[in-house]
Amino acid sequence: MESSSKGEDEVGGYNSSNVKKAKLQSTLAALLDDPILSDVPKKPTLSDVDTLISLEMGSAMRISVQKLDGTSFDVALMNSATVKDLKLAIKRKLIEMEQSKMGHRHISWKKVWANFALSYHNQKLLDDNSALQDSGIRNNSQVHFASYVMSKDSQRHSKRRKHRFFHGLNKRA
Prior knowledge:
The chain is of the alpha+beta class and 173 residues long. The protein has five helices and five strands; from the N terminus they run ααββααβββα.
């Protein structure tokens, strides 16, 4: 008799666990539909929520990013953020926006950052490790995408690869 009641508790515990998860998900969905929480992503991570709390407390900043088509969107970052952190926030935000509109769509971020740079007051933000505040970026600043052409000096692979290719041809001749 004890074994049957224990089995019912496990089944009941499983069901009550699922009911609790369902209630939590419905409550979270209702909260995220609230206009006051419109800046919270649809599937927020702990770091997203932490950054938004820090933004309300004044230890984070909101940066507006203007795309080449003239539209813009906002990202929230800690005050100590670097250019790399800004790029990652832009990547997360754009992926979230694209998935909500069109489903999954692959963007080659390597190609994006090879052809475009972020710019603030006509100053391109090229050093990923530099702090945003060192460039003068503060709360409610606006950065833009700008065309970026890599110089031949900054290309990493051109001469070595050519040298190996032609060296292999010379051995066969």
